[in-house]
Automatic annotation (TrEMBL):
<protein>
    <recommendedName>
        <fullName>DUF4402 domain-containing protein</fullName>
    </recommendedName>
</protein>
């Protein structure tokens, strides 16, 4: 006699809710008035997906008022249980990504790609609050700034 055992698969999330923590490095523009870039790499535990990593780059240009660009970029979430990557486009107000003082910026995100299991997330939008805590505060102007970040992601 054989028995059929079915595993209950948790339902796929319909939006993102997580708090990612990790490290960043922010690279100032090489030319006056240019964009600064910040590279983020971190992780979170998401109840329905388990351990997840997030990585990506944001750009901003706070040097020339009024700023011609806002903060914008792409963040990719990778979770083994997701069956693929979740890609988000983020945007928000202009921010000084190379500040040597702690900063917080509220960003908006839209999920633009997801694996089949998470296809219901495509098009969902939400808010991501990015807090940066630089490691060193007395850096020469034009230096790369490194530190730790927290990214709180909620669905709107």
């Amino acid at each position: 006699m054989s028995a059929i055992v079915e595993r209950a698969t948790p339902p796929a999330p319909t939006g993102l809710r997580a708090t990612f923590t990790g490290r960043y490095n922010a690279v100032p523009s090489a030319v006056p008035g240019g964009e600064t870039h910040i590279n983020l790499s971190g992780s979170a535990r998401i109840p329905s997906l388990g351990n997840a990593r997030i990585a990506g780059t944001l750009a901003s240009n706070p040097s020339l008022p009024p700023s011609s660009t806002n903060t914008n970029g792409v963040l990719t979430l990778v979770a083994r249980r997701a069956g693929g990557n979740v890609v988000t486009v983020v945007s928000g107000p202009t921010a000084d990504l190379t500040s040597t003082k702690p900063t917080t910026t509220q960003l908006n995100y839209t999920v633009v790609a997801a694996p089949p299991r998470l296809a219901s997330m495509i098009g969902t939008q939400g808010v991501a609050t990015l807090s940066l805590k630089p490691r060193l505060r007395n850096l020469p102007v034009g230096s790369t700034v490194t530190g730790q970040f927290t990214l709180r992601v909620t669905q709107s």
